[in-house]
Design brief:
alpha+beta, 6-stranded mixed sheet, single chain, 152 residues
């Protein structure tokens, strides 16, 4: 049995080319400075007032067989922050970097689809580029919403 915490930590250990900082749940800075960008933050809960994604996890599921595996479906967000939103800045200038980092992210993930065996099945990931708030600032970036199945 693997814990949700282990899966989150394994996600924070994902090495993505071009992203020098990858923060686990209890390491994420309150504010991300320019020198820390691009950065990935592991978020086990929705931290925005408006939900980034409309679907929800399935929660606890027990298969129909008495001796079958008991599973739980978790969702977590890996928030990729690329650049701060500033008054004179246009998102056009950050799009090429964002696109390249998304490609790099999935290149890294495909080498470890079960996060070092923490997941029963390969991670399902939804991608939503946009502007995201973290701390008191807004950033151009991408929410990578993971749906995981773990045995309990």
């Amino acid at each position: 049995m693997t814990t949700f915490r282990t899966a989150l930590t394994n996600l924070s250990n994902l090495s993505v080319t071009g992203v020098p900082h990858n923060y686990d749940v209890d390491e994420a800075p309150a504010t991300v400075t320019r020198s820390q960008l691009p950065a990935l933050l592991v978020l086990p809960a929705n931290v925005q007032d408006v939900r980034m994604f409309k679907e929800r996890g399935e929660g606890f599921q027990a298969v129909a067989f008495a001796n079958g595996a008991r599973t739980i479906t978790y969702t977590a967000t890996h928030l990729l922050l690329v650049a701060p939103v500033t008054g004179g800045s246009s998102n056009k200038q950050h799009l090429p970097t964002l696109v390249d980092l998304i490609d790099n992210y999935f290149t890294a993930l495909k080498t470890d689809l079960t996060l070092s065996g923490a997941l029963l099945e390969p991670a399902e990931v939804s991608v939503e580029p946009g502007i995201y708030a973290h701390g008191d600032a807004k950033y151009y970036g991408c929410a990578l919403r993971h749906t995981w199945k773990l045995e309990i």
